[in-house]
Write a structure and sequence with these properties.
Chain lengths: 294, 292
Amino acid sequence: MAATSSPAAGPLAPPRPPWRFRRPSVIPGFGLSFGYAMTCLALVVLLPLAGLVAKASGLGLSGIWHVATDPRVASALRISFGISLLAALAASVFGFVVAWVLTRYRFPGRKIVDAAVDLPFALPTAVAGIALASLYAPDGLVGAQLAKLGIQAAYTPLGIFIAMVFIGLPFAVRTVQPLIAEIDREVEEASATLGASRAATLTRVVLPPLIPAVLTGFALAFARGVGEYGSIIFIAGNLPYVSEIAPLLIVIKLSEFDYGGAAAIATIMLGISFLTLLAINLIQAWSRRRFGYV
Amino acid sequence: MSEIFSPVSVPAAAAPATGEGPGVRALLIGIAVVFLGLFLVLPLFAVFAQAFSRGIDAYLDAFREPDAWSAIRLTLTVAAIAVPFNLVFGIAASWSIAKFEFPGKSLLITLIDLPFSVSPVVSGLIYVLLFGSQGLFGGWLQAHGIQILFALPGIVLATIFVTFPFVARELIPLMQEQGSSEEEAALTLGASGLHAFWTVTLPNIRWGLLYSVLLCNARAMGEFGAVSVVSGHIRGLTNTIPLHVEILYNEYNFVAAFAVASLLAALALVTLVLKSVLEWRYAGDLAGGRAH
């Protein structure tokens, strides 16, 4: 008796609707649009990526480890990840200054400067690559000036760094910019009226909520730098053990028909990119808890 | 009387409490502008400077070569297939994701975004692993005489992959912001689903659609890494414009390389200008109201 008349299932409670995949709606076309989108996604993205996973799992962990510890592969991975970490750091610092200037100050040409930030997104990587190489070559416009200081940029790891900062910069700027625009000026004013110096206001009131966005921009610039190919290979010099990046090594393995080796390097790179994406999501989840927004 | 006014001294030049002083401000603006100028604008300038470094005749010589024309034709063909494909996909995906409620949405959006986080070279590699001579379907394709790799289909597939998220990731947040009440109103007034889409949804998303197609097209025409892996670099047959630029550059034919590259640089400039105009004038009609 008690089991049948629990308070929740009283006579007034509506009958529980049967479970459905999608909530009912008057709008038509779910089956067609969902089915078509899923088919495209499966054929274009998921199936080919599954092919890579299949190839890599055929090698097994020991096989991938064997490729990863090959001296040439290990040094290419070290170069790719090490330099893109440094480049993402530089992009984040300058990106923050650029984002701050673009949102806080009004000066002539601001909109043009703002549009120019997206140049690395719009310019094809191969074009950026040959342009950077010609500028930073020892006889180039910038390279000649650097040569006077005894610095050679092109065909060295420094060249890789320059190309990676170039392609990573828009990520660093565009993730921070909207948040700087949203800062509540009243909080800053409150801090100032309470007697804080400008430096104290900046470091203790303005900057802390921006940290998650800066970290996200850093991670995006890093991920882009690790995978970048076109804008780097022309300026890098591509010397094995010195300035050879991991994506180039994949291309070399493919041209030698070493599909297994190429798949192993790609798997390692994908694994690290996946960890980076995971880190971004964790940063954003933490930011939502801590500051209430992404 | 003067007593009333004189003691109040306003320190006019002091740094404002909630901003930087004029000196710091000028310094920061200077750093940002010089840095962007040297780092982003100078390379663009260098493309045109190098292209015209031996005069207009040497520039035009680069386009008298039949290989340059076949590269241009191939790039236009690839974009003409890849962009509409991603456009239709993007509309279908955003319609189903933004207008309906179902579980697993955020996973789906992550999967759609996946190609953006994959290295271009890996994007090409996955198709080689599928369709290459030692690939999964390689033997079957060879037996049936179907050529995918080192031919147009492979280049189109790799381009579709790298530009896959562009339209969907712009339209999904845009349609989610707009909700579906207008479509519901149209449907209750007796419009058919297709009619409602055509007269209500499409006008609402038209600027976002144009915006995303612009970016998608720029990437499709300029993609290098992924296409380079699947194309096989056959001159006059499977070379797109970026690959043709690479070959000319590696042959030390710099003027021709930069001349052909100037086409892509001009495309990038046009894309950037149109994109900025859309952001300034129609910010409210784009996802996130992208106003700077």
